[in-house]
């Protein structure tokens, strides 16, 4: 986690979208995933970074545009949590790796209200994943 390609106190990170966007009241979150190779230990390392943004204003269309799982470039303030790295929003940009991405589009925005989960996607998430995400949200606030 400490080998992220960042500039001091301000993160610039490009990676694939790992999980769908999760909206919780005035905050929205998603995970970015990057696979890299560590030449010292000769193995592949998967980095997972949480990105927090406000889904209103100029970020209002982000959740809709991230449904096709694009490559995402994010910038913002880097925050180190206990077991996770988080980037607080500044800029979100995305590009689609190919034009066939629309073929694989799935509804993936989930809304949370208090302790109850209301999912807009057809597949329900496990309660373990919801608890983990809510715990990460509390660490960021």
Automatic annotation (TrEMBL):
<protein>
    <submittedName>
        <fullName>7767_t:CDS:1</fullName>
    </submittedName>
</protein>
């Amino acid at each position: 986690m400490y080998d992220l390609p960042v500039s001091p106190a301000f993160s610039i990170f490009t990676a694939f979208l790992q999980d769908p966007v999760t909206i919780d009241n005035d905050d929205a979150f998603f995970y970015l995933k990057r696979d890299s190779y560590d030449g010292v230990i000769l193995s592949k390392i998967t980095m997972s970074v949480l990105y927090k943004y406000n889904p209103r204003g100029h970020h209002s269309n982000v959740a809709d545009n991230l449904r096709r799982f694009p490559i995402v470039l994010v910038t913002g303030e880097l925050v180190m949590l206990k077991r996770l790295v988080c980037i607080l929003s500044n800029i979100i940009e995305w590009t689609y790796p190919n034009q066939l991405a629309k073929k694989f589009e799935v509804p993936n925005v989930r809304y949370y209200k208090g302790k109850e989960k209301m999912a807009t996607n057809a597949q329900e998430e496990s309660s373990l994943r919801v608890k983990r995400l809510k715990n990460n949200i509390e660490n960021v606030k």
